[in-house]
């Protein structure tokens, strides 16, 4: 009967004894759904923790996307409507038909061992980052029992990278270049990551004045030495000066004439510009008098020293310290000639003597600058002057937002002059020297034997030195660019005997253009200028309203971390110690005599 419901019909006929479910209008049974409305409806992605068996949790220890998307409403409860699986999937197994399956982990004799860090992706051939692999018997001949650092591939972030006898390497705890005193107040701490992001474009600079004289370079050193006729490095007595900024009378006069705001020397400025490549500790004394800022060095400083293999993975080790609890011994004898300090002194003397030896001393054939050497006093000196020219150059560090221009004057140095083969003009040279102490000793950084490889594999030798001495070579290139030198001459000097640090021979000389050399090392001058401007802004910001107040700061590189710290120190710091703090005296401002 159309239009009449079944319930109304049963009520009218009063058929109470008929079979069937109780007639009710309620849609729930005690608040719980009686049955799923539709098995196609889903609640979304949910974790069903009541599911039993291996259909859920036991699939790889987690819920897969394909499985969770197939869960229907009510499928996780015990229901009369649940369909029982006809086959038991738990009894299913995969048969491996791969032939000659190699063991991935074995500790028996001849078995290869593979460890990977957490998050390893890819097979052993990819070699995830942080992996460690030892070659087994199936490796090519001559490569058994070797260790390889696996850096390719992705993953392995949580793994530890092992190297040769990595477990037995002594802990390197270097000392600071200057003792931090209790009265010093730390004003700023900057890590190298922040410094590498700085950038400031500047011009090539302008020449203000020049002093000294230069001898001509001896071109015979560019030719490879004759076999069994190596040139010995000579020790010459010549007067050479490397006066700090505040004690330079020329800079004092320029400061009096208000030619610039910031004053420095090329060795100090290059250390600051290349600070992100440094490993050893160093310090710079910064003095602010009035509106002038002077970057100085202490007399007993490490900036003047030429380090050896500072950036090598396995750098030279310090000598053993006295046995104290918790200190790990390095195994280096105290009288060893291959400690970082002894190697730096040796390299510094080699650079000094090499620059004097490769020039042709002649009183008739030399280039005189506009003024004589400002540090030489003929009545007091007994040694003749060395070939050296000082060029005072000015750079503009101003920004568009600056109300007043900000200029920096730097004293640069050049070592020799050479005639151009085409134009015949004089070209300025920077002369430096790399030294080899022992390519088989600890700390050599995997360097090749220069006596056998320098002539045939020059590129490999130079590449290794760029890796092991990145900071030193970057400083040399920066000094050459600051001086606007036309060429760099880099000599290769080796010990006559690896156990003798006194006698050396010159194995060869290479010439480079400074900017091309800097490009090969991925050296950014704009980043260096950005670091200088940042430090200067910090100093100027800390001065506040005290324009005429004298303040002193010390910028220190942490000996064991990639961090530099700026300390404010009393104005009389270092003066009582008689260690040449480089304080800006009244003479540096052009108003009196040196202290």
UniProtKB/TrEMBL annotation:
<dbReference type="GO" id="GO:0002191">
    <property type="term" value="P:cap-dependent translational initiation"/>
</dbReference>
<dbReference type="GO" id="GO:0001732">
    <property type="term" value="P:formation of cytoplasmic translation initiation complex"/>
</dbReference>
<feature type="region of interest" description="Disordered">
    <location>
        <begin position="574"/>
        <end position="595"/>
    </location>
</feature>
<dbReference type="GO" id="GO:0033290">
    <property type="term" value="C:eukaryotic 48S preinitiation complex"/>
</dbReference>
<dbReference type="GO" id="GO:0098808">
    <property type="term" value="F:mRNA cap binding"/>
</dbReference>
<keyword id="KW-0648">Protein biosynthesis</keyword>
<feature type="compositionally biased region" description="Polar residues">
    <location>
        <begin position="322"/>
        <end position="335"/>
    </location>
</feature>
<dbReference type="Pfam" id="PF05091">
    <property type="entry name" value="eIF-3_zeta"/>
</dbReference>
<comment type="subunit">
    <text>Component of the eukaryotic translation initiation factor 3 (eIF-3) complex.</text>
</comment>
<dbReference type="InterPro" id="IPR007783">
    <property type="entry name" value="eIF3d"/>
</dbReference>
<feature type="compositionally biased region" description="Low complexity">
    <location>
        <begin position="134"/>
        <end position="150"/>
    </location>
</feature>
<keyword id="KW-0694">RNA-binding</keyword>
<comment type="function">
    <text>mRNA cap-binding component of the eukaryotic translation initiation factor 3 (eIF-3) complex, which is involved in protein synthesis of a specialized repertoire of mRNAs and, together with other initiation factors, stimulates binding of mRNA and methionyl-tRNAi to the 40S ribosome. The eIF-3 complex specifically targets and initiates translation of a subset of mRNAs involved in cell proliferation. In the eIF-3 complex, eif3d specifically recognizes and binds the 7-methylguanosine cap of a subset of mRNAs.</text>
</comment>
<feature type="compositionally biased region" description="Gly residues">
    <location>
        <begin position="107"/>
        <end position="133"/>
    </location>
</feature>
<comment type="similarity">
    <text>Belongs to the eIF-3 subunit D family.</text>
</comment>
<feature type="region of interest" description="Disordered">
    <location>
        <begin position="103"/>
        <end position="175"/>
    </location>
</feature>
<protein>
    <recommendedName>
        <fullName>Eukaryotic translation initiation factor 3 subunit D</fullName>
    </recommendedName>
</protein>
<feature type="compositionally biased region" description="Basic and acidic residues">
    <location>
        <begin position="163"/>
        <end position="175"/>
    </location>
</feature>
<keyword id="KW-0963">Cytoplasm</keyword>
<dbReference type="GO" id="GO:0016282">
    <property type="term" value="C:eukaryotic 43S preinitiation complex"/>
</dbReference>
<dbReference type="GO" id="GO:0003743">
    <property type="term" value="F:translation initiation factor activity"/>
</dbReference>
<dbReference type="GO" id="GO:0005852">
    <property type="term" value="C:eukaryotic translation initiation factor 3 complex"/>
</dbReference>
<feature type="region of interest" description="Disordered">
    <location>
        <begin position="314"/>
        <end position="335"/>
    </location>
</feature>
<feature type="region of interest" description="RNA gate">
    <location>
        <begin position="302"/>
        <end position="316"/>
    </location>
</feature>
<keyword id="KW-0396">Initiation factor</keyword>
């Amino acid at each position: 009967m159309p239009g009449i419901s079944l319930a109304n019909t049963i009520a009218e006929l009063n058929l109470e004894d008929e079979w069937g479910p109780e007639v009710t209008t309620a849609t729930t049974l005690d608040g719980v759904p009686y049955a799923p409305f539709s098995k196609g409806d889903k609640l979304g992605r949910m974790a069903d923790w009541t599911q039993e068996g291996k259909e859920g949790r036991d699939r790889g220890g987690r819920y897969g996307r394909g499985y969770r998307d197939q869960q229907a409403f009510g499928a996780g409860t015990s229901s009369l409507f649940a369909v029982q699986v006809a086959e038991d999937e738990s009894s299913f197994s995969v048969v491996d038909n791969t032939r000659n399956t190699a063991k991935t982990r074995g500790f028996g004799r001849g078995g290869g061992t593979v460890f990977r860090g957490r998050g390893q992706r890819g097979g052993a051939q990819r070699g995830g980052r942080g992996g460690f692999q030892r070659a087994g018997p199936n490796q090519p001949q001559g490569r058994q029992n070797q260790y390889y650092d696996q850096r390719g591939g992705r993953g392995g972030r949580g793994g530890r990278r092992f190297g040769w006898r990595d477990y037995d390497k002594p802990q390197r705890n270097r000392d600071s270049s200057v003792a931090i005193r209790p009265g010093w107040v730390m004003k700023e701490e900057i890590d190298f990551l922040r410094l590498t992001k700085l950038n400031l474009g500047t011009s090539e600079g302008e020449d203000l004045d020049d002093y000294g004289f230069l001898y001509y370079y001896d071109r015979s050193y560019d030719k490879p030495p004759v076999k069994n006729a190596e040139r010995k490095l000579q020790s010459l007595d010549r007067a050479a000066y490397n006066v700090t900024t505040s004690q330079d009378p020329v800079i004092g006069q320029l400061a009096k004439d208000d030619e610039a705001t910031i004053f420095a020397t090329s060795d100090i400025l290059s250390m600051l510009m290349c600070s992100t490549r440094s490993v050893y500790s160093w310090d710079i004394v910064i003095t602010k008098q009035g509106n002038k800022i002077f970057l100085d060095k202490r007399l007993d400083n490490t900036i003047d020293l030429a380090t050896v293999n500072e950036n090598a993975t396995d750098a030279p080790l310090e000598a053993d310290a006295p046995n104290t609890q918790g200190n790990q011994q390095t195994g280096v004898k105290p009288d060893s000639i291959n400690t970082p300090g002894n190697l730096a002194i040796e390299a510094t003397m080699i650079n000094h003597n090499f620059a004097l030896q490769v020039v042709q001393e002649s009183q008739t054939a030399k280039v005189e600058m506009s003024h004589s050497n400002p540090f030489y006093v003929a009545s007091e000196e007994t040694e003749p002057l060395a070939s050296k020219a000082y060029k005072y150059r000015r750079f503009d560090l101003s920004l568009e937002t600056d109300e007043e221009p900000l200029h920096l004057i730097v004293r640069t140095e050049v070592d020799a002059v050479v005639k151009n083969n085409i134009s015949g003009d004089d070209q300025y040279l920077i002369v430096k020297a790399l030294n080899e102490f022992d390519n088989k000793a600890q700390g050599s950084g995997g360097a090749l034997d220069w006596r056998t490889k320098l002539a045939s594999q020059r590129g490999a030798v130079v590449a290794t030195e760029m890796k092991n001495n990145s900071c030193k070579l970057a400083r040399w290139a920066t000094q050459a660019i600051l001086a606007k030198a036309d060429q760099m001459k880099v000599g290769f000097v080796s010990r006559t005997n690896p156990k003798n640090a006194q006698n050396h021979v010159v194995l060869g000389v290479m010439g480079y253009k400074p900017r091309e050399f800097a490009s090969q090392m991925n050296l950014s001058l704009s980043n260096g200028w950005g670091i200088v401007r940042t430090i200067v802004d910090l100093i100027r910001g800390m001065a506040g309203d005290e324009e005429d107040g004298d303040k002193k700061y010390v910028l220190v590189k942490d000996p064991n971390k990639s961090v530099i710290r700026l300390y404010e120190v009393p104005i009389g710091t270092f003066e009582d110690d008689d260690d040449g703090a480089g304080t800006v005296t009244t003479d540096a401002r052009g108003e009196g005599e040196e202290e």
